[in-house]
Amino acid sequence: MVKIDGSVIIQIVNFIVLIWILNQVLYRPIRNILSQRKQKVAGLEQTVQSADAGVQEKDAAFNEGLREARGKGAKEKEAMIQAAQAEEREIVGRINAKAQEELARVREKVAAEAEAVRAALMNEIDTFAKDIGKKILGRAV
Question: What is the CA radius of gyration of the chain?
Answer without folding.
Answer: 58
